[in-house]
Design a protein that fits this description.
Structural class: alpha+beta
Bound molecules: cytidine-5'-triphosphate, magnesium ion
CATH architecture of the largest domain: Orthogonal Bundle
Largest sheet: 5 strands, mixed
Distance between the termini: 32 Å
Shape: globular
Helix content: 40-55%
Number of domains: 2
CATH topology of the largest domain: Poly(a)-polymerase, middle domain
Order of helices and strands: HHEHEHEEEHHHHEEHHEEHHEHH
Strand content: 5-15%
């Protein structure tokens, strides 16, 4: 009976979980869209192989990490196994020219970007109502590994993890706080915040820390590293599922409410670093402070913007995934976390009302 009286927390969470599930389900890519994308990948791979026969084109990002929404961009990474290969900038130019000649894509090579890429787009047609947007990068092996890591986390607890992440992606896009170019956080950053919360904040944890589980068989230093970066994590999800069960049985709605509460008021923004590898770290110990830049002027302004929000990349540990988040951006993001928290505490008659208001 208590479950039925509409204003109890238990009843609200029960309804909201169902709403979240239905909401996310209708935003997933269709089988047709996935097929088209796979065809595009194969076609581009064949073309690039005419330049470099040993090359492979692999998906990373949302198309490969289990957190893909309808019409999301494709992130592709080209690996070339040959010993002698042009550098990334030259490759971007070469591949860009090739694809301009051989395909109908609109092609934009960005050889001088921090990470050189070729940008491709195809405008909407009948068969492809939203067109396609795709970035091709080169030799970005760490991105392939962090994609695999996120995918493994998604597989451990597919329902709760996927719904939370997909909902946050949609929500952050609708609330306009998912844009590193405009001082807010990338989807990748939000995914890391969710995993950090489920591994290190929730007690008992919803997810194990895959980077701290030792290998079943000894593996070599080479297998464990890319350059100086330790890329080890326990990726045998089947074995893990037999040996590890979360003692946390909260519903996805309860977790989401708690997520917003935690990032509205508990996370230590001023001093803390969220690390899914190692838990809560200190900005000080990583040297991620707003140190004055001796060059002054514009450099000083930039330095003051850096490291407002700190999220350690799981493998590239000296890289702050949230380094693009500015002071104003963080103010917006925290404001949105608080707004979401407030809306979810209201508990109106119908949970769907909260969901609609959250994403309004
Ligand atoms: N990535 C990264 N470092 C960043 C941003 C992104 O290594 N600072 C890599 C990650 O491998 C990530 C991929 O680029 O999975 C794509 O990032 P992003 O576009 O932010 O995430 P998606 O899951 O693709 O989300 P969306 O659907 O919004 O494109
Ligand atoms: Mg993407």
């Amino acid at each position: 009976a208590a479950l039925r009286s509409s204003n109890t927390k238990a009843y609200f969470c029960h309804e909201l979980s169902q709403c979240l599930y239905d909401f996310v389900l209708q935003l997933l890519p269709t089988a047709e869209e996935l097929d088209v994308k796979e065809d595009v990948r194969k076609l581009l791979e064949k073309l690039i192989q005419t330049l470099e026969p040993s090359s492979r084109l692999l998906s990373f990002g949302s198309t490969a990490n289990g957190f893909s929404l309808r019409n999301s961009d494709m992130d592709l990474c080209c690996l070339i196994d040959a010993k002698e290969r042009p550098n990334a900038s030259d490759l971007v130019q070469l591949v860009g020219d090739l694809l301009k000649r051989e395909t109908k894509f609109e092609v934009k090579p960005l050889p001088h970007a921090r990470i050189p890429i070729v940008k491709l787009s195809l405008s909407a047609t009948d068969g492809l109502p939203f067109g396609i947007a795709c970035d091709i990068g080169f030799e970005n092996r760490l991105a392939l590994e962090n994609t695999r890591l996120l995918y493994s986390y998604a597989c451990i607890d597919p329902t709760r993890v996927r719904i939370m992440v997909l909902f946050l992606k949609v929500w952050s896009k609708r609330r306009k706080i998912n844009s590193p170019y405009r001082g807010t956080l990338s989807s990748y950053g939000y995914v890391l915040l969710v995993i950090y919360f489920l591994v290190h904040v929730k007690n008992p944890p919803v997810l194990p820390n895959l980077q701290q589980i030792p290998p079943l068989q000894p593996i070599t230093h080479e297998e464990m590293h890319i350059g100086e970066h330790n890329i080890w994590f326990f990726d045998d999800v089947e074995t893990l599922r037999q040996r590890w069960r979360s003692q946390n049985h909260e519903s996805v709605a309860e977790l989401l409410i708690d997520f917003f509460k935690y990032y509205s008021r508990d996370f230590l923004y001023n001093t803390g670093v969220a690390s899914i590898r190692a838990g809560l770290l200190k900005k000080e110990s990583k040297g991620w402070l707003n140190e004055p830049d001796p060059r002054g002027g514009r450099y000083q302004d930039l330095a003051q913007e850096r490291n407002r929000l700190c999220i350690e990349d799981p493998f590239e540990n000296d890289y702050n995934v949230a380094r693009c988040v500015t002071r104003d951006g963080l103010y917006l993001i925290r404001g949105e976390f608080m707004r979401a928290s407030r809306i979810l505490l209201h508990r109106p008659e119908r949970a769907i009302t909260s969901l609609a208001e959250l994403c309004a």
